[in-house]
């Protein structure tokens, strides 16, 4: 080997051989020429991997796992029957069975998802445990948190875990409903079956079963005239 071209050619030969071994073992690769294994893959039965997927480090895939196109999976364990939509990125995480993840989801180190969890588009999870049946389907950040079962995050929810110096933990119980566009300022604890109103900034703990509102009242200005282009000042 004398140059980068030869190195790339050898790498492609190696990747082709790995893809062929996976195909022989029962893994479905939608296009073996567009798949990279840069580590070790342990897999169950009937795994399906779409094009341009990159597997890095130590990865374990359970039975019937499906990985959509253009995903990166690094040092992750993914349970049976989990479906991963395209353009998702996993690193250093554990995912239970029957999860629905992506597209464009990001699971960072120490993310631990139980079974039947939904992590949707543009949702990021870092150093957090999430219980059975919890859903965060849109535009959410969950960091340094412990989340119970059957909790629902409205779109635009942010867990504000960093105060500029230290990271703080958020604890959310079972069957909690977080309204859209809420900010949970850590450290904070929400008990079971708490509901937060949309647009609230939650800064204090809340006991089980309470409704929490933390936002300004709407004001309607009567007689106001909207300025238009061409109006004289």
UniProtKB/TrEMBL annotation:
The coenzyme or cofactor needed here is: Mg(2+)
Q: Which GO terms describe its molecular function?
A: glucosamine-1-phosphate N-acetyltransferase activity; metal ion binding; UDP-N-acetylglucosamine diphosphorylase activity
Pfam families the record matches:
GMPPB_C (PF25087), Hexapep_2 (PF14602)
List the catalytic activities from the record.
N-acetyl-alpha-D-glucosamine 1-phosphate + UTP + H(+) = UDP-N-acetyl-alpha-D-glucosamine + diphosphate; alpha-D-glucosamine 1-phosphate + acetyl-CoA = N-acetyl-alpha-D-glucosamine 1-phosphate + CoA + H(+)
Where in or outside the cell it occurs: the entry states: Cytoplasm
Main site of residence?
cytoplasm
GO CC annotation terms, alphabetical: cytoplasm
Q: Which GO terms describe its biological process?
A: cell wall organization; peptidoglycan biosynthetic process; regulation of cell shape; UDP-N-acetylglucosamine biosynthetic process
Name the source's superkingdom: Bacteria
Keyword Nucleotidyltransferase in the entry? The reply is yes
UniProt xrefs under SUPFAM superfamilies: Trimeric LpxA-like enzymes
Q: Which UniProt keywords apply?
A: Acyltransferase, Cell shape, Cell wall biogenesis/degradation, Cytoplasm, Magnesium, Metal-binding, Nucleotidyltransferase, Peptidoglycan synthesis, Repeat, Transferase
Q: Which residues form the Mannose-1-phosphate guanyltransferase C-terminal domain?
A: 45-130
* Its job: Catalyzes the last two sequential reactions in the de novo biosynthetic pathway for UDP-N-acetylglucosamine (UDP-GlcNAc). The C-terminal domain catalyzes the transfer of acetyl group from acetyl coenzyme A to glucosamine-1-phosphate (GlcN-1-P) to produce N-acetylglucosamine-1-phosphate (GlcNAc-1-P), which is converted into UDP-GlcNAc by the transfer of uridine 5-monophosphate (from uridine 5-triphosphate), a reaction catalyzed by the N-terminal domain.
What family does this chain come from, according to its entry?
Answer: In the C-terminal section; belongs to the transferase hexapeptide repeat family. In the N-terminal section; belongs to the N-acetylglucosamine-1-phosphate uridyltransferase family.
Protein's name in the database: Putative UDP-N-acetylglucosamine diphosphorylase/glucosamine-1-phosphate N-acetyltransferase
């Amino acid at each position: 080997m004398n140059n980068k071209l030869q190195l790339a050619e050898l790498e492609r030969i190696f990747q082709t051989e790995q893809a062929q071994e996976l195909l022989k073992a029962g893994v479905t690769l939608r296009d073996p020429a567009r798949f990279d294994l840069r580590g070790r893959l342990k897999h169950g039965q009937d795994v399906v991997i779409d094009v341009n997927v990159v597997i890095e480090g130590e990865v374990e895939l359970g039975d019937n796992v499906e990985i959509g196109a253009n995903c990166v999976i690094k040092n992750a364990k993914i349970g049976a029957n989990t479906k991963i939509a395209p353009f998702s990125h996993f690193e250093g995480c554990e995912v239970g069975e029957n999860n629905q993840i992506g597209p464009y989801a990001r699971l960072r180190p120490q993310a631990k998802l139980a079974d039947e969890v939904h992590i949707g588009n543009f949702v990021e999870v870092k150093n957090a445990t999430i219980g059975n049946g919890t859903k965060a389907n849109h535009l959410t950040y969950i960091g340094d948190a412990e989340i119970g079962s059957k909790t629902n995050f409205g779109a635009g929810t942010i867990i504000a875990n960093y105060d500029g110096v230290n990271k703080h933990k958020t604890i959310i119980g079972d069957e909690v409903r977080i309204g859209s566009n809420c900010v949970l300022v850590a450290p904070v604890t929400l008990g079971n079956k708490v509901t937060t109103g949309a647009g609230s900034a939650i800064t204090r703990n809340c006991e089980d079963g309470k409704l929490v509102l933390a936002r300004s009242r709407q004001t309607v200005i009567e007689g106001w005239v909207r300025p238009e282009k061409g109006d004289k000042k």
